Amino acid sequence: MAEWDASLDHVIPSSLLPPFWAKFLVGFASLVCFARSYDGDFVFDDSEAIVNNKDLRAETPLGDLWHHDFWGSRLSSNTSHKSYRPLTVLTFRMNYYLSGGFHPVSFHVVNIALHSSVCVLLVDVFSVLFGGLQYTSRGRRLNLAPRSSLLAALLFAVHPVHTECVAGVVGRADLLGALFFLLSFLGYCKAFRETNKEGTHSTFWVLLSILLGAVAMLCKEQGITVLGLNAIFDILVIGKLNVLEIVRKLLRKDRSLESPGMLRTGGLLFRMTLLALGGAGVLYVRWKIMGTGPPTFTEVDNPASFADSVLVRAINYNYYYSLNAWLLLCPWWLCFDWSMGCIPLIKSVGDWRVIALAALWFCLIGLICQALCSEDSHKRRILTLGLGFLIIPFLPASNLFFRVGFVVAERVLYLPSAGYCMLLTFGFAALSKHTKKKKLIAALILGILFLNTLRCVVRSGEWRSEDHLFRSALSVCPLNAKVHYNVGKNLADKGNQTAAIRYYREAVRLNPKYVHAMNNLGNILKERNELQEAEELLSLAVQIQPDFAAAWMNLGIVQNSLKRFQAAEQSYRTAIKHRRKYPDCYYNLGRLYADLNRHVDALNAWRNATVLKPEHSLAWNNMIILLDNTGNLAQAEAVGREALELIPNDHSLMFSLANVLGKSQKYKESEALFLKAIKAHPNTASYHGNLAVLYHRWGHLDLAKKHYEISLRLDPTASGTKENYGLLRRKLEQMQKKNV
Questions:
Q1: Quick check: helix, strand or coil at residue 135?
Q2: Is there a single domain that holds both residue 187 and residue 42?
Q3: Could you give the angle at which helices 583-595 and 599-612 cross, rounded to 10 degrees?
Q4: Average pLDDT, the chain
Q5: Which class for 366: exposed (0-12), middle (13-18), buried (19 or more C-beta within 10 A)?
Q6: Is residue 563 part of a domain?
Q7: What are 698's strand-pairing partners?
């Protein structure tokens, strides 16, 4: 390998070869690429996995993490994603605890630090993969390929395809999985450190490597594939298997194959058995934990896997592989989501995109032939290990063993990209060795490093906010309905309903069965009083997905607004049937009953809402107001006090209870609550107006006049306040005349 490594001496100066400086350079490069994302927001999947994940909060028992999936749902649930990553969730929980809440900076800093750690570890891993495994008499490992290992680690550190894993907080699963994957591999290498005798090993380090592989799997599922890489490394580097020689002997029917020396030397078969049993045991436990079997995905998540034709499935799977290879080769067009029509299905061999499949397999077959049949043993080893590192970690995402919930995902390329960087480095070394234009090769390598660094910086900026992230995808995947949906949702959250409607309509046009886009569009149209179209959209959504509880509830709200009360009640009941714990639906059902003067039913519905969600302020308020309006002041007061015990800082509850207390002539207590509500929201006209009414009744006329005037200054159109203020002024004038 020394000859191959020396061919890069014009690219990597000798001053950077000492281990400390090599690792420092790689770590620094990784920080430069992704430091821009440190103060970004929680974006895209971060909301579900972190902000809305109850497993991060202190009130959730730690033991629940071992029974929940990555998103906080119970693994036994049929709706669970089955992504079992308890150690990753545990680090999120530690982040939440140490930073005192959901502060994105601390989460992003940990991600950046983890990526830098992975990059630094890869310097050691690449030195083994390129240079082989040799130790000094003191047990210190020799780095026989310092230039190659440094260049490959630099290429990995600055690869833009890693941005999703580093800048997106949920990418921590891939970062942690990769970290323990590499530690497992290096631990396996240490099994051969104790002695230089051929065929001997330390069983402790082999077992520790298997344990670290299990830890990697508890961070991200593909972590378990390290056991496969360890096996290939053992066979090729430790066992020194020569496939070319075996093929030749088979062709010559050589009897020496009957007693392979590789196994006779002892150790290899035992280690393979340990790896196989360890991997099978871990996978069995993982399968048992999943409970109800593999997750259920929809056609929009992975359309190729739902194709009836085996040929169509095979063609599209291979096309997806070629797209992943292109992202590694040219990571310029990156997107946060590649589903929902972003990559149209190939339905016949006449599609021009089949050329990409042919190109991929032409390259792979060429590399495999060189890896197996080259006369150069170093070349065989490096190409085989590089292909192993590229392919083995990618296998869980390949659709070969089970259906996955995506078409293309940049995050799953985090580990495989190490194999790509290794092959690319070997290619540069080979080019440099066989050409005299070494400066041109050096310029090419430096150009790639510079452009990739620049792309990382730009892409990290796009991941800092959802607005930039979603809009960046419009030019990459204009056919992706989810991209338009997310842009629309972001605009709606900012109050720009007109623009949001445009993007929601485009999402529905691109995917006529996109029920979530229909639901959100129907909601906006409902708020704009375009009730007929809203009803049509929501009716279509529940027709496509009959168990879509939120759409049923929203359809009920629209039908209530259209005075179709019986249909609205049926829609609410259907929503509750599909989602039993649905406090918002009970709240809206209560409003329907209140409109129909079914007061007992309304109170029961709102009570159900508060039982399911004790902090449901609107339900509490409506109960207080209904009891107040129907003359049940004592009951209204009891409900108000109960609500304030649960939500002591809710100013609207203070206001409602203050009104009840005022009518019960408990003026002092009522005044205190009004003043607390005004302190919380000093510019609410009704708070001042009702306090003025209290003072008016109480006989504190000057204070009443003061708050009437403040209320009218805040809302000059309030007719009731005007009328009461007029009455007060006439009373004050009469009092003045009497005094005169």
A1: strand
A2: yes
A3: 170
A4: 88
A5: exposed
A6: yes
A7: none
State the residue range of the domain holding 383: 303-459
In the chain, the number of structural domains is 5
Residue in the structure block whose two tokens are 């550190």: 157
* 536 touches 572 (CB < 8 A): no
CB 324 within 8 A of CB 413: yes
Lookup result for tokens 């990290």: 460
Residues 509 and 367 in one domain: no
> Is the model's pLDDT at 254 over the cut of 70?
no
Alpha-carbon span 154 to 421, nearest angstrom: 9
Tell me the helix, strand and coil percentages in the chain, rounded to 5.
70, 0, 25
> Which residues, 6+ apart, have CB-to-CB distance to 152 below 8 Å?
122, 126, 130, 418, 421, 422, 424, 425
- Could you tell me which of 429, 328, 423, 428 has the C-alpha nearest to residue 385? 423
SS3 501: helix
Kindly state the DSSP code that residue 235 receives in the 8-state scheme. I
Written as one letter, the residue type at 87 is: L
At residue 135, φ and ψ (nearest 5 deg) are -120, 150
Tokens matching residue 587: 């709240």
Q: Does some domain include residue 50?
A: yes
Query: d(Cα 238, Cα 731) in Å, to the nearest integer?
Result: 103
Are 144 and 253 found together in one domain? yes
Token pair recorded at residue 63: 């033991």
Q: Are residues 220 and 310 in the same domain?
A: no
- Whether 102 and 220 map to the same domain: the answer is yes
Q: Which residues contact 440 (CB under 8 A, 6 or more apart)?
A: none
Q: Is 282 in contact with 224 (CB distance < 8 Å)?
A: yes
**DSSP character at residue 295:** P
End-to-end CA distance of the chain: 113
Per residue in 194-229, pLDDT tens?
Answer: 544 555 678 899 999 999 999 999 999 999 999 999
Neighbours of 451 (CB within 10 A): 14
CATH code of the domain containing 490:
1.25.40.10
**691 shares a domain with 674:** no
Q: Give percent of the chain with pLDDT exceeding 70.
A: 92
Structure tokens at 118: 């992975």
Q: pLDDT tier at 16 (50, 70, 90 boundaries)?
A: low
Whole-angstrom CA distances from 471 to 37, 343, 495, 510 are 17, 18, 17, 17
Please tell me whether residues 347 and 265 are part of one structural domain: no
Per-residue pLDDT tens over the stretch 685-714:
999 999 999 998 888 888 988 999 999 999
Q: What is the pLDDT of residue 5?
A: 65
Q: Do 144 and 284 share a domain, yes or no?
A: yes
**DSSP alpha helices (H): ranges in 353-496?**
354-373, 377-391, 416-434, 438-462, 466-474, 481-493
Q: Which of 290, 325, 346 is the last residue of a domain?
A: 290
- Residue 718 maps to which CATH number? 1.25.40
User: How far, in Å, are 58, 190, 511, 700 from residue 265 at the CA level?
Assistant: 55, 19, 61, 102
Identify whether 333 is part of a domain: yes
Please report the pLDDT score of residue 415 as a whole number. Answer: 95
Q: Determine the residue type at 277.
A: L
| Residue finishing a domain among 662, 681, 700 | 681
Distance CA 645, CA 40 (A): 37
Read off the tokens for 74.
Answer: 């119970």
Q: What is the DSSP string of 541-569?
A: HHHHSTT-HHHHHHHHHHHHHTT-HHHHH
**CA 717 – CA 701 distance, rounded (Å):** 22
Q: How far apart are CA 184 and CA 189, in angstroms?
A: 9
Q: Considering the domain boundaries, does residue 86 fall inside one?
A: yes
Q: How far apart are CA 180 and CA 556, in angstroms?
A: 50
H-helix segments, 630-718: 633-646, 651-663, 667-680, 685-698, 701-714
pLDDT at 503: 95
Q: What is the CA radius of gyration of the chain?
A: 33
The half-sphere exposure of 573 on its side-chain side, counting CA atoms within 13 A, is 7
